[in-house]
């Protein structure tokens, strides 16, 4: 079946070099949004309606016409405030192996190496970060036919990495990217899967693979955007929505929603906070304390190394660097852990969704 081209939001165009304080100028700078823009973003980043005419449903909730809602969302996509509207699938449930990877590069090699690493289709997030010799951090997912460790080792060798660490998830505490655009503050909802089952592969049929391929593509701005993918699959819209709901029950799909370019939306600063938790009896308590913050979008436990003793990771997004620092200080008080680092993003090289079975 011929595939749709990736959306403009998913194409890899490196942003300009950030300013010294960690914010990104130019295309990554803040976009002015009015009240209705912010209300629309609050709706579509939470749970996009799986109905025949979703933009009409959004317009009714906003008290706007369907034409106005479509125009607004179209402008937000053209301005790259909205990256993509599509299904968010669970990588591990689909049989893919994934890990966060930290690499150390000499400053003069960092940019070129980051762009080369971006070319791998399984790299979904790739950031330069300050605060440690490991200065490039990316997430990588590979299908069962590809070895994760071999792939990472090859990336390091080809691009001249001085050192690297593979940091797969040991335990999930939270996955829930959400921003309150009206209040301009975090609004991350807790998503805490059953940790006894989170790494279990959910088998899918050949036809379900076709459905996944359709649902992962950026949704069009047509008044009836689900008609075309349903027709390509030989389904009615109702049947397509029923399959999507089944994916959610099985843990294959987390939700169908918009992903925002958080810098463009006003959340210009993100810090990966890493926490040293040495007492095994504290690991669960600390993870839950970190995950409880509305400013924390992701929270995981990952392996430690002699030169990298940080076991817990909490991603903080905010409109100012100072707010990120204040959130970290509050998390330290709540968790009782004072040994932590804040690794601020200085450049976003890639942020997209993994495209599965392509």
Could you explain the architecture of this structure?
Among the domains are: 31-79, Arc Repressor Mutant, subunit A; 93-193 and 263-351, Alpha-Beta Plaits (2-Layer Sandwich), CATH 3.30.70. The protein is 31% helix and 23% strand. It contains 10 helices and 13 strands. The chain has helices at residues 35-44, 54-62, 66-78, 107-118, 148-159, 206-215, 227-233, 237-249, 283-291, 321-335; strands at 82-89, 97-104, 123-129, 136-142, 163-167, 171-175, 179-180, 185-186, 253-260, 269-275, 296-301, 312-318, 340-351. Helix 2 crosses helix 3 (66-78).
Q: The CATH topology of the domain at 93-193 and 263-351, please?
A: Alpha-Beta Plaits
Q: Please describe the biggest sheet, giving its number of strands, its sense, and whether it closes into a barrel.
A: 9 strands, antiparallel
Specify the CATH class of the domain at 93-193 and 263-351. Alpha Beta
* Distance linking N and C termini: 11 Å
- CATH architecture heading of the domain at 93-193 and 263-351: 2-Layer Sandwich
- Classify the secondary structure makeup into a structural class: alpha+beta
Radius of gyration: 20 Å
Q: How helix-rich are the residues, as a percent range?
A: 25-40%
Report the average pLDDT across residues: 88
Shape: globular
> Could you give the count of β-strands?
13
Q: Output the strand order for the largest sheet.
A: 5-2-4-3-13-10-12-11-6
Low-pLDDT parts are 1-27
List the helices and strands and how they pair.
Elements lengths: L34 H10 L9 H9 L3 H13 L3 E8 L7 E8 L2 H12 L4 E7 L6 E7 L5 H12 L3 E5 L3 E5 L3 E2 L4 E2 L19 H10 L11 H7 L3 H13 L3 E8 L8 E7 L7 H9 L4 E6 L10 E7 L2 H15 L4 E12 L7
Antiparallel strand pairs: 1-9, 2-4, 2-5, 3-4, 3-13, 6-11, 7-8, 10-12, 10-13, 11-12
Helix pairs in contact: 2-3
